[in-house]
Each structure stands twice: as structure tokens, then as C-alpha cells.
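Hi everyone, sorry if this is the wrong subforum. Our group has a chain we'd like a structural model of before ordering constructs, and none of us has done structure prediction before. Sequence below.
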Amino acid sequence: MKLIKAYIRIDMFETVHRALNKEGYTSMTVMEAEGMGSYSDPKDQHSSLKFPALHSKVVKLEMISEAEHVDDIVQVIHENASTGHPGDGLMVVLPVERSIRVRDGEERRYTV
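Answer:
Right subforum, don't worry. Here is the predicted structure as C-alpha cells:
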């Protein structure tokens, strides 16, 4: 099992979500976030009282997937979130060692 985290432009999320759903990848967690760094789009950076440094609003998308689907998921996100400009975002893939269902405590362990 793998954990995919994607940080993408807010305005690209709907397109990415539709494309993932079309391919059958429907389970995900989505959060609105704020990021800063060299990957930010300088034209979209702003400051606020909450975050005085220049930052950009992003969507953080998380998905847990079987290892054999990861490349397909990453490709769908890339194809549908990329504008070719700085600030398009970042994706990371991490190993998942185990999962525990909150409802009943059922645990699954995975080889990493």
C-alpha cells in the first residue's frame, strides 16, 4: 500500500477530481491548505493576518492505494493539474506500513 499526497492549485482540483473518478479512483481526502516556497506561483502569492509570509492557497489531496495503481493515479493527477507554470504543485508517494479501522480496530499490515 502507498500514500499519495498531492498539493495542487485550487482551481485545478475539480478537473483532477473528475479525472480520478472517471478512472475509478474515488476514495480521497481533500483539504484546503496554504503553501510557501520556491514552488509557489509568484503571481498568486499573498499574505494574510494568519500567515504574514507570502503564500499560495492550495488543495492537499491524499489517497491510499494498492502499489500497482500508484503510477496511474500520479499520471492522472499530473495530466490534469499541470499548467506548465511555477506553482502547479508537488506530489509525493510514501509507503504505508499498516492501517487500523477506527470503527472496530481491525488492523492490516503491509510489506513495505
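For your construct planning: The chain has a mean pLDDT of 89. The chain has one domain: 2-109.
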